[in-house]
Amino acid sequence: MTRIADRLYVDPDVRWAAYVFDEMYAAAPQGAWFAPGMLRLLGGPDAALMVGVPWGAVVAADLRGEGPAELYSLNDDHGPIPVSVAPAWADPFREVLAEAGTGLRAVVSRLLPAQTGLLSGAETATAFALALRDLRGVPPSPQDPALRYAPGHAVLTGPASDVVPFPLAGLGLRLVIMEVGVAAVAPQPPGDAVAAAKALRGGDPEKVGVLLSAARRPCGSAADLALDAAAEAGALGGRTIGRCAVALAPLEAVPAIRAAVAARLAGVVPRPPRILTAASAEPARRVG
């Protein structure tokens, strides 16, 4: 059977994780799993509106090891180390890995830099949960937002839990994610996730942009400058999420937003902003 690392039709990030696993253990992994990043657009612990973005986590793993579960991070060059003594970046999925028992060996790749502040570690926990489902028969939590997510939809968590339509591509909309190099931002209001879900059910996605702006507390940061420039160039609204400025915008406005944000931040930040656009994400699944 062709190794995952040699399958040219497989996503390069998956092939790279599998290749590193091959090199580290002189054996191919038994599988590879992907989970999308789940971006919390609005809300807090009690209720949140979350959308999938393409940059999540990849785990290549097997159960052929001896002793405690161990892992290696492509992002931090840590490992292979036992899960029990892994650094803080493993905290969000340490509990999941405790269910793995002995023998688990894994290579982890998180697909967004930590400085964006967008990935919580939940996406890596989901990828590990899928690996344990397939390798050990441990069922994942049915409440995991990444497992409930489907392309073209958003997930509302909390008491009014729901999966609501949010077909960004079909609506001609994009999420514009602007990483502007800020080290920290002031705490932001959580925003009204339930109202956003209601707007999406009612076919009013533009209202989400209004609600994003309503959940913004400007503090004069580079992220605020980026959001102001994006709004002037046609964005429907936005707020700071993690350490990024995130805006909802018509697709046709994206080039103008890119140019406006770069111009506004010239001479303000030490490097040009990194700007990504997202319309959807692939679902969490086994990918090799």
UniProtKB/TrEMBL annotation:
InterPro entries: GHMP_kinase_C_sf, Ribosomal_Su5_D2-typ_SF, Ribsml_uS5_D2-typ_fold_subgr. Its EC number is 2.7.1.6. Keywords: Kinase, Transferase. The keyword Transferase applies. GO terms for molecular function: galactokinase activity. It is an enzyme of class 2 (transferase). The keyword Kinase applies. This is Galactokinase.
